[in-house]
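Protein modeling request. Please complete all fields; requests missing the sequence field cannot be processed.
Requester role: graduate student
Desired output: 3D structure, token encoding
Chains: 1
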Amino acid sequence: IAEYLSKRHHVTAAKDGDEALALLKRESFDLVLADRHLPGTSGLRVIEHAQRLLPHCASVLYTAYPSYDSVKEAFATGVDAYLVRPSDDLKKLAEKVAEALGGRGGILLG
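Delivered output (110 residues):
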């Protein structure tokens, strides 16, 4: 995902939720793209922290295990888009990212 999105955007990848949180404290991002089940701090918690630290930051949450409750919780938290994995359609992912970014640039991928 990072390699594909890097063709059009500046992407910083984090290996887990804890690293993503550390990056959010040191750098500024326009979008957080996070896996709901990141090791360490969950993707949804990373997005919550991003919203507090970077109020302008858009967010996309993705998961391989969707449920009604996880979708409801994600949108209640304020995510801009919710995607289901696995998705071989990277073009669709890129479109969702572009919509959420609205012309801004840097992405934190967790």
